[in-house]
Amino acid sequence: MIASPASRCAGPASHAVQLEPGENVRRDGASFVAQAGTAWLQARFAAGLPAGRWISLAYRCSYHDRLARPLLRFVTAGGHHDQLAPAPLFGRAAWIGRVPHDAQALLIAPVDREGRFGFEIEHCRLLSRRALVSSLWPRHPGRVLEAIGARLIGRRQEADRLLARALASTPLAHYDTWRRERWRDFDPDGLDAPRSDWSSGPHVRIIAGAATSQALQRVPALLEQLARQPYPRWSLAVVAPEAAGATTLGAASGSERLRLLAAHDAASALHDDLSTDDLVAAIDIGDILPPYALAVLAERAAAQPAATVFYGDDEAIDMAGRHVDPRLKPDWSPTFEAAGGYVGRALFVRSPWLARLDAACAGDLVGAAGLRAVLAQAQAAEVAHIRRVLLTRRERATPVAHRPEGPAHGSLFVRHAAGHFPDVPAATIIIPSKDRADLLAACVRSLGLLAEPGSIEIEIVIVDNGSTEAKTRQLYATLTAQDARLRVLERPGPFNFALLCNEAAGTARAPVLVFLNNDVEARDGLWLERLLSWAARPDIGAVGARLLYPSGRLQHGGVVIGLGGVSGHGDSGAPGDDPGYLGRRAVPHEVAAVTAACLAVEKAKFDAVGGFDAEHLPVELNDIDLCLRLADRGWRTLLEPAAALVHRESASRGRTAAQDQRYRAERAFFAERWHHRLRDDPCFHPSLSLASIRTALG
């Protein structure tokens, strides 16, 4: 179905919708071209926009498009209301929500990059509240009961908010149903028509190992499923023991697309006939490539000729035929890959990489581990994440939990695990504080763990924001008398966290700054070395720690941009030792931002971006803003979970109505400055929910 005709559905509760190019969009045949990062389509409702009603707006996108959350803008007389819609991972999705009462028009931005895209409205249906509740009950019974209760006591807006949050998240355990609801068959004659010449596109060589005769018997099935790929340029290389051969394969051995090699054959035999633009993947004999996989890969390879390494998302299928364990990955995260091996088997590389690997025999390149060495050598500009499920793993009868491959011997990760931290720089620890001597004393006392012989050089700057209690002054006198490394910087006046930190940073004598809340307590003497050793690296900006509530549950394990509308701590409240989705909280990994409750950054980098924004973000979100500005300069933000501290989270300040009002103003400024990042955190897959603190499907 082409985007221009009205899209209809049967039934009296359906609305016909037509899409027309709007700002920054032009039509090009059956598709559209975005001429800016945010490009708008105008949705025309034949019967008028159903303002105030709950609707299901289902849409389709091309599999070739870079996956993004569509942005819906409901235009009103006084401005607009923006809503993010689910990313159509499998070609289709639906936004279910209430159209604002004052909405006059609907604009849709399906993509977030310039270039060609395909987008269609499948249907728009009016929904009753009863139908909503019935559909949500199996997945979110608790939230449905909350919404019903809120409505019964007259809190209708609260009830709507609870329903909207429930609609925007699905537990990972319901992945099979979620997937079926979003699946659309690949349509190479329509929405997924080739955008490059497939007859001359890159050849894709699939390498599969078959160590047993039973595995060899699965080769015909693998050939059959590859034959269902619309993309025509592919071949299969099977690496088997020397004794295996045509007898075992039967008729499949005659396929011109099949090449059979012995494990001891030269590795060059796997790629000596390929050109430099061709691609190679190593999979298990039982893996499944979805019908769109090779076409999507070929289109991305054609669109990004400088990329030499491509990886996609993957999933598993269990013994009952249910799709489970979706591995929806972040964009390229070299530290996470080196420490945790998150990329896995959905990995495709240009053929010249095989000649550069230290592989003598064909058997050395069997399995994802054979190509994993490429990831350690590739430059960031060479690696592309394809935000689609490109591979389905067959789950074993006895499931085996995902265990990331360990880092190479002698790497920074091994030295960290052993407690060895090379070239740790000196640090200035900056602690803003006002009264609450009990919290500050506990914080500084915990830092005494760093005073052991041979520890790193530090100074501690307490930035006092106008303390008035006598016991606080007495504490300052005691601390400065006991430890010459500690000094107090007097900065009275209205509370401005960003300004306090900036002024203290201006007096720092060490090359690395460590910002620490006065309600944080260290648990051991290694947390600082762990942070500093990362912060000193030239490619790293801010480094954060794993922060725990006093109960031991997780308070901070990295910030997700867009979570809850602006930003949030993903999985807050989870068990403190929970490894998290993809095992990311078990190893150092990239995140979009970390909290300044415990944040390390080189002073030179901090100064290069102008420090915290004390003018626009004096109290809230200044740490997130700092990390994003560092990222714009090319410095990655890391979370080091091995550095664990206890955080009482704003115990020293509390929360008032005036502070809530100020927070709303700072949220609005942050959202305007970083509107493009609220939609797309590169460390958080767009098919994951921004409405759920615990990792869920969106």
TrEMBL record:
Organism of provenance: Vineibacter terrae
Domain Glycosyltransferase 2-like stretches: 428-552
The protein's name in its UniProt record: Glycosyltransferase
GO molecular function terms attached to this record: transferase activity
UniProtKB keywords: Transferase
InterPro entries: Glyco_trans_2-like, Nucleotide-diphossugar_trans
Keyword Cell inner membrane: no
